[in-house]
Write a structure and sequence with these properties.
Elements lengths: L5 H11 L15 H7 L17 H6 L20 E3 L2 E3 L6 E5 L7 H14 L3 E5 L3 H16 L6 E5 L3 H7 L5 E4 L19 H6 L1 H18 L2 E7 L5 H7 L3 H17 L5 E6 L3 H18 L5 E3 L7 H17 L5 E2 L11 H14 L5 H8 L40 E5 L10 H7 L3 E3 L2 E3 L7 E3 L9 H12 L3 E5 H6 L6 E5 H6 L10 E6 L5 H5 L1 H4 L3 E4 L7 H14 L6 E7 L4 H11 L1 H4 L6 E6 L7 H14 L8 E4 L10 H12 L6 E5 L5 H4 L5 E7 L2 E6 L2 E8 H14 L18
Parallel strand pairs: 3-4, 3-10, 4-5, 5-6, 6-7, 7-8, 8-9, 9-10, 11-14, 11-20, 14-15, 15-16, 16-17, 17-18, 18-19, 19-20, 21-22, 22-23
Antiparallel strand pairs: 1-2, 12-13, 23-24, 24-25
Length: 748
């Protein structure tokens, strides 16, 4: 007969009557001696969430349902208020902006100065590294020093491997971040464990419980906040062996630790599901949110893409992950992890929060109007798995004089906006370079990151021989030239792609202007279902989705893809994004949020960025930005992918300087992923998402990884970058940088 704990009986009754189990006196009235008798003290006494793997959770709590408050308008998910010193997390409060100090925590004065700069910048909370007792003592001094200087900004202690130290530092700081992957499981070894049954797996919960309960009791007594912060790169070997390196494993790991907190009637905690891969990150948060809905939990969410990198790429990757979730109404606090000084994280963090708040239907009448203006549709997306809708590319026929099959790329296409003056005899050679062509004696040839097609609202005059020759040369190497049909009627261009609105194409049955080789259709999202369904019969080479400003870009686009799926429309869909941005960082955040949120759903085959108004950016910059978006959404790799941690007090080398050196040495290797980790905490774990790893292990020393395996140890910092290059060569994944040659253009 199965033994049933009396604590579990109490909790089960509480669950059945829809009240919290083990509710006792207020924290101020409790003494530590009461904890031992009032609440579970062992794993067998805890009422664990029913198993997902056995199907018990479906039986007890029903099937997974919604993951956000409203699929058709931006509405914040209802989340309880969690207190962290003077600030509060939850749906009744503004999104909390936070960062992490990069100083050595033991250097109290330097840490205080940096935290004050972060507070002055506008951050609401700062996390600090706590490796051991020395740093725990320093944290107390930092807290006291900040109070003396008039700063009450709350501090969060980042804890790994040290349950006892976590209890000590809880006396000093307002929040404790624990990582379920290593808080009790020890240092990650990737050792595969074999579990014959669910019972074998749950047996090991005892040591988790023993490690966690004292900290939970301490946090409850002191009214501290906790973050249960799962990291894709540092799942325990126990979880990896049972669930795999998956979003499901991340969610189940967090739920276990939440069960321990709840068993002590402690609810002052938030969740996070961080990953360096935005697709994994988005899926994990959505899955956790869906689980919380069916479990009737309402804990706040801390959003972040870990090890995002630096510059526009880091901001883009963060916006893809964070912006996508905020657009769903998920998220109560945000951290943008950049390999830069923490003060520089504020602008993207704040901007993403502002963009999210501007989309909320409840507080922004204009946003509510746009969202309500989207015609009715049924959202059928499956948030438990990523599946990309892939459009069928055009095929070349015998009659075609140019290769239309090269107008788009199966892994995601980039289309660049071009104006006639760029095609002059003097400007054309520079345009070739801006579009990413290689050239030989002035003739353009496509390369790995060349724009697949170009878009021109107006054409050079028919008698402009030089400009027309430049266009012909690009067409001859497989570049599509997309031009509005009305312009082609006035100014014909052989082998151009004629762009028509869907209404225009349907009325004229897709009749092409003279000389045009294929049809492209523009959809603005206001069309009715029957009209959009006609795309199937019109058979365009591509569809440009350019949403009308009167409707919500996110929801109108999702509707279009639902209609495509329902009618088996397989035309490639290109997101046509028009921007007035004048700042490169803001453009990255806009694109990541507004287009990335659709690409992470698997909806879209490419992007066209067009500047509205002033031309603030070069063709080259916009092309590279578009490719960065595709790479950040895990579609098309055109350069080395870097997983780079943002630095903290654990970092064992100058991360920014070292990352720059590694990027300079290895940044020309598309398809290769290099992880640069300042310390061992997440380092080995992140190797699971990288081909090669560069990890600080001892002061002045670096270990190199191939996948999860350490292949070279204790390399002096000065020699490590060269050693990394040699390691990449040894696995036949190296190619030499191409020499850049100045070439004279051929006269037209």
């Amino acid at each position: 007969m199965t033994k049933i704990s009396p604590y579990a009986v109490v909790a089960a009754v509480a669950l059945a009557t829809n009240v919290d189990a083990f509710v006792g006196p207020s924290p101020a009235a409790k003494s530590s001696s009461l904890h031992m008798s009032a609440y579970p003290t062992s794993a067998e006494d805890i009422l664990w969430t029913p198993s997902w793997k056995t199907g018990e959770r479906d039986e007890v709590n029903g099937a997974l349902g919604k993951y956000c408050e409203d699929l058709y308008s931006v509405t914040r998910r209802k989340a309880r208020t969690v207190t962290c010193g003077p600030i509060k997390f939850g749906s009744d409060h503004p999104i909390v902006r936070q960062t992490m100090a990069t100083t050595d925590t033991a250097n109290v004065d330097a840490s205080i100065e940096q935290i004050m700069r972060c507070a002055d910048k506008g951050f609401d909370l700062v996390r600090i590294t706590v490796q051991g007792r020395r740093e725990a003592n320093a944290a107390a001094q930092i807290r006291e020093g900040l109070f003396k200087k008039g700063y009450d900004i709350p501090l969060c202690a980042d804890m790994h491997f040290q349950p006892v130290v976590a209890q000590l530092v809880a006396d000093a700081v307002e929040k404790i971040r624990i990582n379920p992957g290593n808080f009790a499981d020890g240092r990650k070894d990737f050792e595969e464990k074999v579990y014959e049954s669910e019972a074998d797996y749950v047996k090991e919960r005892e040591y988790l419980t023993e490690a966690m309960i004292p900290l939970v009791q301490k946090c409850k007594d002191l009214n501290r906040c906790m973050r249960i912060g799962t990291n894709h790169g540092s799942l325990s070997s126990r979880v990896l062996s049972y669930y795999g390196d998956t979003p499901r494993g991340m969610v189940e790991s967090a739920i276990e630790f939440a069960d321990i907190c709840r068993s002590q009637d402690f609810h002052n905690f938030v969740f996070s599901m961080k990953a360096s891969n935005p697709l994994v990150m988005v899926q994990s948060y959505r899955l956790l949110a869906s689980e919380m809905y069916r479990l009737d939990w309402d804990y706040p969410l801390h959003l972040g893409v870990t090890e995002a990198g630096e510059g526009e790429d880091g901001r883009m990757k963060s916006a893809v992950g964070i912006g996508t979730l905020l657009a769903d109404g998920l998220g109560d606090t945000v951290r943008v992890s950049l390999t830069e000084d923490p003060e520089f994280e504020y602008e993207p963090c704040n901007r993403l929060s502002e963009m999210s708040e501007a989309r909320l239907a409840a507080t922004n009448p204009d946003a509510a109007t746009r969202q309500a203006a989207v015609k009715k549709y049924v959202d059928t997306r499956d948030i438990t798995a990523y599946s990309r809708r892939t459009g069928v590319l055009p095929e070349k026929t015998e009659e075609d004089k140019v290769d239309v099959s090269l107008f788009l790329n199966p892994n995601g296409s980039v289309i660049s906006s071009v104006v006639p003056k760029m095609l002059s005899q003097d400007s054309a050679p520079y345009l070739y370079k801006e579009l990413g062509y290689k050239t030989a004696v002035g003739m353009p040839f496509k390369d790995i990151a060349t724009s697949d097609s170009i878009f021109m609202r107006t054409l050079p005059a028919v008698d402009d021989t030089n400009a027309r020759t430049a266009l012909r040369r690009m067409m001859e190497v497989g570049t599509g030239v997309i031009v509005p049909a009305e312009e082609l009627k006035k100014n014909p261009l052989d082998n151009a792609v004629a762009l028509m609105s869907l209404t225009e194409a349907a009325e004229g049955n897709g009749q092409l202007p003279d000389g045009a080789i294929r049809l492209a259709i523009e959809i603005d999202g206001t069309e009715d279902d029957d009209l959009i369904a006609k795309v199937k019969d019109l058979n365009p080479v591509m569809v440009l989705i350019a949403i009308d400003p009167s409707v919500s870009q996110l929801h109108a686009s999702r509707r279009v893809f639902e209609i495509f799926n329902a009618n088996d429309i397989d035309a490639p869909a290109i997101h046509h994004y028009k921007t007035k941005a004048s700042d490169s960082n803001n453009l990255a955040l806009e694109l990541g949020t507004k287009v990335g949120s659709l690409l992470t759903d698997g909806n879209g085959d490419g992007v066209l960025i067009e500047q509205a108004g002033e031309n603030n950016f070069s063709v080259d910059f916009l092309r590279n930005t578009a490719f960065s978006l595709l790479q950040g959404c895990r579609m098309r790799n055109t350069k080395t992918e870097f997983v780079s941690c943002p630095s903290c007090g654990r970092t064992l080398f100058d991360l920014q300087e070292t990352t720059a050196k590694i990027q300079d040495a290895t940044g020309h290797l598309p398809g290769v992923t290099v992880a640069v980790m300042g310390c061992i905490v997440n380092g080995p774990g992140e190797m699971a998402d990288a081909d090669f790893g560069y990890v600080g292990t001892l002061p002045g020393k670096v270990d190199l990884y191939y996948g999860k395996e350490v292949v070279r140890k204790s390399i002096p910092n000065d020699d490590a970058v060269d050693a990394l290059v040699e390691l990449i060569k040894s696995y036949d994944m190296w190619k030499d940088k191409e020499e850049v040659e100045e070439e004279a253009a051929v006269a037209a």
